[in-house]
Amino acid sequence: MKPTRHAPIPRVDLRTDRAHSARVYDYMLGGKTNFAADREAGERIIAEWPGSLDSARAARAVMHRMVRRVAEVHGIRQFLDIGTGIPTAPNVHEIAQSIAPASRVVYVDNDPIVLAHARALLTSTPEGRTAYVDGDLRDPEKLLADPALRGNLDLTRPVALTLINIVHFLSDEAVRPLVARLLDALPSGSLLALTAGTGDSAPEQAAVASRRYREAGIENHLRTRTEVERFFAGLELDEPGVVLINRWHPDLDDGPVLEDHEVMAYAGLARKP
Fold first, then answer.
1. Which residues contact 42 (CB under 8 A, 6 or more apart)?
2. Model pTM greater than 0.85?
3. In this model, does residue 124 exceed pLDDT 90?
4. In this structure, what DSSP letter does residue 129 have?
5. pLDDT digits (tens, 9 = 90+) for 201-211
6. Coil, strand or helix: which one is 132?
7. What pLDDT score does 9 carry?
8. Which fold has domain 21-271?
9. Residue of 37, 38, 16 lying closest to 29 (CA atoms)
10. What is the structure's pLDDT at 13?
11. DSSP letters along 157-222, please?
């Protein structure tokens, strides 16, 4: 079989002098795709809240569990992953295709650091497909019209829309209409998998993280459980509903289950009727 040819990825300005949410997260996960400004922002959070490293890992682990459940329990074979972040194995396609090799995944991000590493997201099984769209959650019309999305996902069949670790970087006024528009474009049977930052479980620690992000020039908005549940209005919530990420189908393979005060995000999965 001939190797798949991909279009050259353009040269991008990574703006390494400024902290970036994807790179700060990468640093806290123990990754290497980060720079001095990102490490400085991360260290300021860690210094005041040492448990933030465990919380970051828990936020990544819940994504793994959500994708597995979508593929294994709900049988979805198409994924639209917006706000992909820096590739960190296992990525969505690696999890989904390990369960169903024919799964198709379209990754979307507008961050130059992710674009620079997008090749790692395109290693599909022969039976499935992966694609990367240099797109923006804030421009759903352009995203939905993108040839890479249209060429790899069949929008007449159910799609799992995964919004992991992204909505807390936008205000309610900005993000809710965007999520609603994307769901409108997907057929009945599609799923929304979403995580959102909160201060409910650890108010002091969350305030530290939020303040340090803002000081680094990164917008962020913490939400209550009720506010997170509003993203799922009109959808059929999967069990156990909107809960803290440590309580969303915990799996000992992900390591010790954290206590509520050790995490600062909610997770929820719901079906479009």
1. 24, 27, 28, 34
2. yes
3. yes
4. E
5. 999 988 888 88
6. strand
7. 45
8. Rossmann fold (3.40.50)
9. 38
10. 52
11. S--EEEE-S-GGGS-HHHHHHHHHHHHHTSPTT-EEEEEEE-SSS-HHHHHHHHHHHHHTT-----
Tell me, what's the pLDDT at 55?
85
Smallest CA-to-CA distance from 60 within 38, 82, 88 is with 88
Q: Where are the alpha helices (DSSP H) in the chain?
A: 21-28, 36-48, 52-72, 92-99, 112-116, 140-145, 147-152, 172-184, 203-215, 225-229
Question: How many residues in the chain?
Answer: 273
Tokens of 135: 């797109």
State the residue for tokens 């991008």. 12
Domains in the chain: boundaries: 21-271
| Pair of tokens at residue 61 | 């682990």
Tokens standing for residue 240: 């156990």
What proportion of the chain, given as a percentage, has pLDDT over 90?
66
Q: In whole angstroms, what is the distance from residue 102 CA to residue 78 CA?
A: 9
Q: What is the DSSP letter of 138?
A: T
